[in-house]
UniProtKB/TrEMBL annotation:
Superkingdom field: Eukaryota
Cleavable signal peptide: none
The keyword Transcription belongs to this UniProt entry's keyword annotation: yes
Record organism: Pampusana beccarii
Function: Component of the Mediator complex, a coactivator involved in the regulated transcription of nearly all RNA polymerase II-dependent genes. Mediator functions as a bridge to convey information from gene-specific regulatory proteins to the basal RNA polymerase II transcription machinery. Mediator is recruited to promoters by direct interactions with regulatory proteins and serves as a scaffold for the assembly of a functional preinitiation complex with RNA polymerase II and the general transcription factors.
Pfam families xrefs: Med20
Primary localisation category: nucleus
Record's protein name: Mediator of RNA polymerase II transcription subunit 20
A single cellular component GO annotation: mediator complex
Gene that specifies this protein: Med20
Compartment list: Nucleus
UniProtKB keywords: Activator, Nucleus, Transcription, Transcription regulation
Single GO BP term: regulation of transcription by RNA polymerase II
Length: 211
């Protein structure tokens, strides 16, 4: 199914939580129904210094991610690709590989919130947190009947504008690389990785509206 993951800015004068409530109220007014909760998390691993060698190579970052929509899977992504889909035991493997990859624990980030169903659309509005504080808002919209992402972009866009207004996103970069191939779970995880990295970078600057 074609899917878009986007960040929504915090509304002026509002907190993260109040902005999430505004969005979910709009969805409920459209007639969307709550269908449980969701969580996507991401841990950052960097190449251990001992494995980099003396040629001045830079360490690589690897992101290990989970999505409650795929409870039996674990996703391992590098920033420039590829994405490995493994079973849930992958986390145990990462502990054994700590001589090669070290967990940057302070960088753990997750998005958690409510799932909504509206006709053929599945919408997930999440609060993105790092440590104890809310850092931003994610909105994932999936058009369930369609497996070729580019075929459903106009529909997705129209629906997102109905409750996100001018904050509806542009075409995700994964759509550009997919062309007419089938969209899969890894494509959604790449979008979450990009969104989390964007939010991490924004944290270098102070954020208004978080209390």
């Amino acid at each position: 199914p074609g899917c878009s993951v986007a960040q929504v800015p915090v509304a002026e004068g509002k907190s993260v939580q109040q902005t999430v409530e505004l969005l979910t109220r709009k969805l409920e007014l459209l007639g969307a129904e709550k269908q449980g909760t969701f969580c996507v998390d991401c841990e950052t691993y960097h190449t251990a210094a001992s494995t980099i060698g003396s040629q001045g190579q830079t360490g690589k970052l690897m992101y290990v991610m989970h999505n409650s929509e795929y409870p039996l899977s674990c996703f391992a992504l590098f920033e420039s690709g590829p994405c490995l889909i493994a079973d849930a035991n992958f986390d145990i493997l990462m502990v054994k590989l700590k001589g090669f990859f070290q967990n940057a624990k302070a960088n753990k980030i997750e998005s958690r919130g409510t799932r909504y169903q509206y006709c053929d659309f599945l919408v997930k509005v999440g609060t993105v947190t790092m440590g104890p504080s809310a850092r931003g808002i994610s909105v994932e919209v999936e058009y369930c009947p369609c497996v070729i992402a580019n075929d459903c972009w106009n529909l997705l866009m129209e629906f997102m504008q109905s409750f996100m207004g001018s904050h509806a996103p542009g075409v995700p970069s994964v759509f550009g690389t997919k062309h007419d191939s089938i969209y899969g779970p890894a494509d959604t995880m790449v979008q979450y990785m990009e969104l989390f990295n964007k939010i991490r970078k924004q944290q270098q600057a102070p954020v208004a509206g978080i209390r």
